[in-house]
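User: We ran a pulldown and think these components assemble together. Before we commit to crystallization trials, I'd like a predicted model of the whole complex to look at. Sequences follow.
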Amino acid sequence: SYNADIESLRIALDFLHQQTKYQTKTLILSDIQQTGIELKELYPKIFQLIKEKKIDRFIGIGTDLYKFKNSFGENGEFYFNTNLFIKTLQQNPHYFSNEAILLKGARMYHFENLLHLLEYKQHQTVLEVNLNAIIHNYNYFKSLLLPQTKICVMVKAFSYGSGIEEIASVLQHNKVDYLAVAFTDEGVELRKAGIRAPIIVMSPEAGTFSRMVEYNLEPEIYNFRSLQMILDECKTLVTQNAYPVHIKINTGMNRMGFDPDEVHRLLHIITENKETIFVKSVFSHLAASDDPDFDTFTMEQISVYEQVTKQIQETLGYTFIRHILNSAGIERFPQAQYDMVRLGIGLYGISTIDDSKLENVSTLKTNITQIRTVTAGSTVGYGRRGKVTVTSQIAVIPIGYADGLNRKYGNGNGYVLVKGQKAPIVGSICMDMCMIDVTGLHAHEGDEVIIIGQGISFKQIANTIGTIPYEIFTSISQRVKRVYVKE
Ligand SMILES: *Cc1c(COP(=O)(O)O)cnc(C)c1O
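Assistant: Here's a predicted model for the assembly, 487 residues in total across the polymer chains.
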């Protein structure tokens, strides 16, 4: 909603261009005001710009654009004002389909009214994801590393709940070296969304290898069975060159990977099949990189990894990428960064050492649905568990445990923020809503409510209900619309 110069349009068009989900790119633009440029020069310039940025569909709104519509050649649809366009939209429900649409209008054109028509999920509870914060956090972790160290970002589990394609596309734009997902389907989804960065699949399932090859995804190999599976499938597919794989070594986590005493046999098989697969990377995972109590153990894991990779290097005779650090590892053991690190929770704003270096990425918010006065002695909600001792203002908000708001957070254990002030949750959290106490807060129906984010951190919520921020991030359900903001 800022439309006073061509430069801001150029930046917005670049952002539109980065959106990989839809091929067709559409621009809806209002008259540009106060540029200081003559209109008859301005509009041909804009036409040049939208041609340069390969905009497929152009809709101009405003009297100036209408007047200069000849500057835009054959293409372009023009409307005198926003309301006329809204009328057209309402009469043609299929006016847009499968398009990425950029709305760029000066405030007086009230494009927010258009936005409401174009948004396709109407649930009021949203998770707002700040892409600038993602970039900030990415660069912070990058600054802790040597310039040549590669970064693999973990975008598994819907990018820790924040949305896989959108986060991956921002990372790709910021030249991330690798992305990693848990399952093949997640990788396929990324490729379908136009992500070209290399992708590791950490837990490839049997029978998905042909899809992996088709979509250029690189499997982790964690034991002899998974190795054999990949070899068998590779041979039936007759891939042109040896296929890249990532070898996982168990150094003490005892989850997935080859034990050090299995490496000899592993190398034998890999050498025998060097026409079929090649080792792109060898990695391990730390069990307690965030806990100073276990630093001796962590150092041992690193030392075992060091020995095993040396052995593999000597036998294979070619170089591969080495990586062992997760987010906490990057902050606490930078000496073990090797060739690459695997950044996860840190990107989403959680630090082991100092959160103040990171920016809050996600904010879960909603609006008040209804407010009522509840008299002293009454109760609120199921099981009559919300006891009201003094006459109170009780508000309903449309978020419940089905959205990922844990029931343990109810009955006064948790609070939300209304106008920056604490409003405790009253009674039990219901499936689709919960009640909060807004007594004395001068709250109104429709007011915004922050559930998690700035002012109530994911860490804080996790502590309150006795879990870790990872679980809070990944519990926010898919019906909560993700909204991406970038300045
Ligand atoms: C999830 C995961 C990571 C990232 O861990 P964070 O603690 O979120 O940084 C790194 N490596 C592996 C193997 C993982 O599964």
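Residues 154, 202, 285, 326-328, 342, 344-346 surround pyridoxal-5'-phosphate (CB under 6 Å). That may be worth checking against your pulldown data before setting up trials.

User: Thanks, that helps.
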